[in-house]
Amino acid sequence: MIVGCRLAVLLAVLSCFGAGASASVSCYFCKKLVNSLQSHVRHNSSLHTLSTLLQDACVVFGIEKKEVCNGLVKEFRPVVVAVLRDSAVDSAALCSELLKSSCGGGPISNWTVAVPGDKPPYMPPQLPKPGSPVLRAVHLADPHIDRFYEAGSAVNCHEPLCCRPWQGKGNAGKWGDVNCDPPMALLENLFQHINSTEPVDYVIWTGDLPAHDIWNQTHEAQVETIRTISNLLRRYMPDAVIYPAVGNHEGSPVNTFAPPSVTGDLSDQWLLDTLADIWIDWLPESALATVRKGGYYSVRRADGLRIVSLNFNFCNNLNLWLYVNDTDPSGQLQWLIQELYEAEMAGEKVHLIGHIPPGLRDCLPAWSAAFNKIMRRYESTVTAQFYGHTHFDELEIFFNSSQPQANSRPSSVAYIAPSVTTYQGHFPAFRVYSIDGGYPDASWHVLDHRNYLCNLTEANESGVPKWTLEYVARSAYEMPSLFPQDWAHFAERCASNRTLFNLYMMHKQHGPVPIKCSDEKCHHAHVCDMLTSESGNTAYCSFAKKLDFP
Asked: pTM value?
């Protein structure tokens, strides 16, 4: 996930003006800065002038200390210049997306995709016969490992990421701290635990391996982190089948994923080639070819399941390149339609994996709407979706129509796994899914899931991490199954049952201090999040207290 407002990175400062300011004030200064920068770029001002303007804005508005601001500007300056030179998006529309607020102007674009007709008739999902085979998939999300973490260092410092040796002495524990990204030792202990206790059929790995020090990263450092963590996974799970996805923190600068049309020094080919090289033991050559093209791939398993991993950075509202052209970058969605069509024709089921959940405001509305359109068409083929990015334990429910209608019903579920990283108040966690699969005519639906976490306070006190069962979904939430309609009923129950809602919120945070959510506005917002799979479209949220789905 992104570091937060203080480190949101567009132009190093744009999406940070909202901190402590009203939306109108934030929009005003954002538009002023964009217009000023664009004028400088188009009048061929020197890079020094642009850097000074960005650095001064970052410092004056209290975004960060000078050293961090300078690092951010150095990281992003080449991309900022290229984007402001070529973008036709006006400042109002751009600031609306970056600030996730209404700054005037229309959407940055309005495009869609065409999907094939002849949608198969809807068949309600059914539980498998007793005794049917069950596969187990481990979901690892957002490790954000800090290679510089040091026990005994300061957990509070004057930089956005602490627990590093040059930041002074403090109380950072051996196994991590909830104010910091975790040490490599914690991840190694997690891999050891999974290898020795969990019968794993395959691993879903949804990205964001590097730490949150986004003002001080290089291509070489990113590659070293990705390679080191991947080799650690190989070491402890040498026989596991791994299905990875690329996160928004793998790139450098963070979030900036250029389409294939961008070449030369600003291209992300260095990262795509690195991923293909590192993933070579896990994926067939046919999949590696599309990884090199755009960071996405498809794998046809022998048991009737097709795994499709998407690069959701092509919908990321902090990906500056999308403000030049956001229309289906790399042709990924058209490729997805073809993959799902072929799977449907072959009688296969599909699991989608990715990093950024499509219902978040982090995902640009046009891309998200097109993706939801595809999901509605192929609801009989796509039986589960898996994401990370938010660091929370949560979910998004898809529906068979973009607006509530008489025949509206839940059609798919996006499972958003809790993070391994401890950053921003979490205990490290992972999830294990029980999946109906591995035999002819299996439904490939998620039957249940178990969440495990490590209490860092106890681990640091005892010196030994313990990965304990936090909860089992069906029993904790008293659900007959985990089909889309069951999760819709769960959202309905959360809207009216504070006890159940508070339990969900405790699991959502997976940390020492639960999320404070005592007022009605907060309550509704979190239920609304469950009911939103299309960015900016909260049409189903008004039904949060009166859902009546079959």
From this structure: 0.94
